Amino acid sequence: MNSDWQLIKLKSVDSTNRFLKDFISETRARNPVVCITEQQTAGYGQQNRRWQTNADSAIFSIAYPLSKKMPIPGLFSLQVASLLHKSLTNLTSDALYLKWPNDLYNSEGKVAGILIEQVIDFDYQALIIGIGINRSPDQLTASASNVSNFCIEQLIEHFLQQFKHDGFLHFSPFALLEYWNKHDLFTIEESVHLITKEDLNTRESGEYLGINPNGQALIRINGKITPLSSGQSSIRKVSLSVTQ
């Protein structure tokens, strides 16, 4: 592991994201910190949904300190997902797909999720990037799947190297969108279900039109094109089977 990164290993913790938010708020770390755990007892994902894991899951979070009031690019969430995709496909050779805004899927279902949060305290700012990857199908939800087994520390090493090589906050939007389009879970004009955070049970149908330069998913509903921002709503395949 690069000496610029501090590594914390825990047997068990409620949430690696929550642990790092508290840790850097107290220490005000100036270099990135990585926290790995074997067991996460109260993990959470987007909109505080429970983060389902098992004993074989790879669970870690990265605290990345920023310069004061550094703006976060609109495509940042997609960039993190693309870097994880590159690292996982390099280690496992699995066929994986990117699902807007920052999930990874294989042909059977979701294999990895990412939760990005911020710590902002007067003159201190940091990003917290939580990652959970399924390495075994045991005790997962019906819509989840898993990747081939890999060493978590090798993955983190590769992932952090990607940060340096491809850029973390300073990257080419064109190159990112080109990579995303190549590995997108959805195809252009594919029928999808739109699920809003206000009503998780109602699934409105639309057609997927890709990602715009602001990182928003474009959905055509009844002839009207609607841009979706991360956190507002999510999109689902009409069928779980991926045919590419």
Structural commentary:
This protein is α+β, with helices and mostly antiparallel strands and 244 residues long. It folds into two domains: 178 residues, Bira Bifunctional Protein, Domain 2 (BirA Bifunctional Protein, domain 2, 2-Layer Sandwich), CATH 3.30.930; 47 residues, SH3 type barrels. Helix content is 23%, strand content 34%. The protein has four helices and twelve strands, in the order βαββαββββααβββββ. It has a seven-stranded mixed sheet, sandwiched between helices. It is globular.
Summarize it.
The chain is an alpha+beta fold and 244 residues long. The protein is built from four helices and twelve strands; from the N terminus they run E-H-E-E-H-E-E-E-E-H-H-E-E-E-E-E.
